Amino acid sequence: MATGTPERLEQIKGFINTVNLESEDPLLGPDALPAWLEATGVMRSPTEDQLAQLRRFREALRGVLEANAGQGDPQAAWRALEPFGRESCLKVEIRDSGPVLRAEGTGEGALIGSLLADAYEAVATGTWPRLKACRKPSCRWAYYDRSKNGSGAWCSMAVCGNRMKAKRRRQKSRVSEP
Ligand SMILES: [Zn+2]
């Protein structure tokens, strides 16, 4: 894959990034979740309740990605996902290559289950800690950290990283002024 994100994390990343919290582009809209659901073929014409539930799940999941980037308490972040895990229905499917977790059902419950199965697999294979949410408070975009030692903190060094560094430099010089 061109972005270098493991395949099963690509789905989570896409889901989290259905809202661009920093976007100033009115064409992108505040929240592309319905369009994403349609484009990925997951759900057609979701109800407002279903969208609200998926948005709650999306932000809870983003919390874990923020914890992966060193922001907030990881335990609390996982705990926020607990009710979603309880409601999802997963089955172990045996394939030629071995067992795979599969979500059952339809609608938003199946999507939540499927994304949690992706997260489960990523935790098991060790790729999960690299799926992060940008540390810039106004951005929080999901990205896969490809840095050598996994210490990346921003979705894009060119944009968020440099902006944050410049901000810190300004703050520092302000503090050192008499
Ligand atoms: Zn960012």
Sum this structure up briefly.
The chain has 178 residues and is mainly alpha-helical. The chain has 7 helices and 4 strands; from the N terminus they run αααααββαββα.
How would you describe what is shown here?
50% of the residues lie in helices and 10% in strands. It contains 7 helices and 4 strands. A hairpin with a 2-residue loop joins β1 and β2. It is globular and about 60 Å long. With 178 residues, the chain is mainly alpha-helical. It has a two-stranded antiparallel ribbon with strand order 1-2. Strands 3-4 form a two-stranded antiparallel ribbon. It binds zinc ion (ZN). Zinc ion (ZN) binds next to loops.
Bound molecules: zinc ion
Strand order of the largest sheet: 1-2
Q: Rough shape?
A: globular
**Amino-to-carboxy terminus distance:** 52 Å
Please, what is the average pLDDT?
Answer: 88
Helix and strand content put the structural class at mainly alpha
Beta content:
5-15%
Determine the number of helices (DSSP H or I, runs of at least 4 residues): 7
